[in-house]
């Protein structure tokens, strides 16, 4: 099976000016090669018909278990990985249709904070070169002007200007992630994809980084796509939260509403796993049975039905669509 990059045929679309990003029917399948002539024998359906939007100056949290497709959505959205089909509107531009030289001109407006603060920094470069490299490449600033901007950025993220002459191995994990944040801010982007930016850090440092990201958003007006494993991480930083399961978006809602009244059985299980900081209060824990099915051969119908205690025959036959159940709250479940 061959999936070519293409926009949706016959579908006219005018992006909403309120939204900075609109992802429509995004698909990314990875081929599994086999046989004597090494041809595709199956596909890993990492992202399968995912749609969502991110408003300007908003933080959209994207959560789900490992392997559900969160990072692939982000990388495909930015065209770090080429999509197989769908549309990705950045303002009024469809990124999927752009040529490489056209996309390169938009790169400064879309930056990434990576998960691993150790592997994401070049150990042979000083902090000055790590943060300032993009400025020089895109012609934003060079020489003493570049150095001044880098030192200003380091102070903005809670480091010292003197740190610019040091190498990554001289910093702790939290400090390295601050360097990564400074690098993402160097081009004054409109969108920052934070790919599990605190998962490799101690709990005490996580809150500092989350508070820093919130402060930067208030000061600079940047928009975030914040990816995380658990709902507890994105609870205090996200305006809206999308929940993914096995390559599909199963629920999307404002943050407070999602925690107060989750609708999808999978989301309910995730919410039940959030620790309650009060020894006198107890939350009933929902334990999901079985393992996550293979994305190579996902179940027919609802992909969650093999682990859902509420599943009926319709769930096994018919795939549910993501539909609105309240203002701003959408769920992909037949029983809601």
How would you describe this protein?
The protein has 336 residues and is α/β, with parallel strands linked by helices. It has a domain at 19-116 and 193-199 and 219-331: Rossmann fold. It is 28% helix and 24% strand. It has helices at residues 70-77, 100-106, 127-137, 143-156, 173-185, 203-220, 231-234, 255-260, 265-272, 313-317; strands at residues 19-34, 39-55, 59-63, 85-90, 93-94, 110-113, 191-195, 223-228, 240-245, 248-254, 323-326, 329-331. Strands 6-7-8-3-9-10-12-11 form an 8-stranded mixed beta sheet. It has a 4-stranded antiparallel beta sheet with strand order 2-1-4-5. Helix 3 packs across helix 4 (143-156), helix 4 (143-156) crosses helix 5 (173-185) and helix 5 (173-185) runs parallel beside helix 6. The protein is globular and about 70 Å long. The protein starts with 18 loop residues before the first strand and ends in a 5-residue tail after the last strand.
Shape: globular
How many β-strands, per DSSP?
12
The CATH architecture category of the domain at 19-116 and 193-199 and 219-331 equals 3-Layer(aba) Sandwich
In N-to-C order, the SSE pattern is EEEHEEHEHHHEHEHEEHHHEE
CATH topology label of the domain at 19-116 and 193-199 and 219-331: Rossmann fold
Q: What do we call the CATH homologous superfamily of the domain at 19-116 and 193-199 and 219-331? A: P-loop containing nucleotide triphosphate hydrolases
Main sheet specs: 8 strands, mixed
Instruction: Look at the structure and give the CATH class of the domain at 19-116 and 193-199 and 219-331.
Output: Alpha Beta
Number of helices: 10
Q: Give the strand order, joined by hyphens, for the main sheet.
A: 6-7-8-3-9-10-12-11
């Amino acid at each position: 099976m061959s999936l070519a990059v293409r926009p949706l045929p016959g579908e006219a679309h005018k992006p909403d000016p309120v939204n900075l990003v609109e992802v429509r029917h995004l698909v990314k399948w990875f081929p599994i090669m086999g046989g004597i002539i090494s041809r595709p024998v199956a596909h890993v359906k990492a992202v399968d018909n995912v749609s969502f939007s991110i408003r300007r100056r908003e933080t959209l949290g994207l959560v789900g278990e490992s392997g559900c497709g969160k990072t692939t959505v982000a990388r495909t959205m930015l065209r770090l990985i080429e999509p197989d089909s769908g549309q990705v509107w950045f303002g009024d531009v469809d990124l999927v249709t752009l040529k490489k030289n056209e996309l390169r001109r938009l790169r400064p407006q879309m930056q990434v904070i990576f998960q691993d603060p150790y592997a994401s920094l070049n150990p042979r470069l000083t902090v000055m070169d790590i943060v300032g490299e993009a400025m020089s490449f895109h012609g934003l600033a060079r020489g003493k002007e570049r150095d001044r901007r880098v030192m200003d950025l380091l102070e903005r993220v809670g480091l010292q200007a003197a740190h610019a002459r040091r190498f990554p191995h001289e910093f702790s994990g939290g400090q390295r992630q601050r360097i990564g944040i400074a690098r993402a801010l160097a081009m004054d982007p409109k969108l920052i994809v934070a790919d599990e930016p605190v998962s490799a850090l101690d709990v005490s440092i996580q809150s500092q980084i989350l508070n820093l990201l919130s402060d930067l958003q208030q000061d600079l007006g940047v928009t975030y796509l914040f990816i995380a494993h658990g709902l507890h991480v994105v609870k205090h930083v996200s305006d809206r939260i999308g929940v993914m399961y096995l390559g599909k978006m199963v629920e999307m809602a404002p943050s407070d509403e999602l925690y107060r009244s989750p609708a999808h059985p999978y989301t309910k299980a995730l919410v039940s796993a959030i620790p309650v900081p009060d020894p006198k209060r107890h939350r009933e824990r929902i334990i999901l049975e079985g393992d996550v099915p293979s994305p190579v051969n996902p179940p027919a119908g609802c992909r969650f039905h093999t682990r859902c205690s509420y599943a009926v025959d319709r769930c096994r036959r018919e795939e549910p669509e993501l539909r609105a159940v309240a203002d701003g709250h959408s769920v992909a479940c037949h029983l809601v």
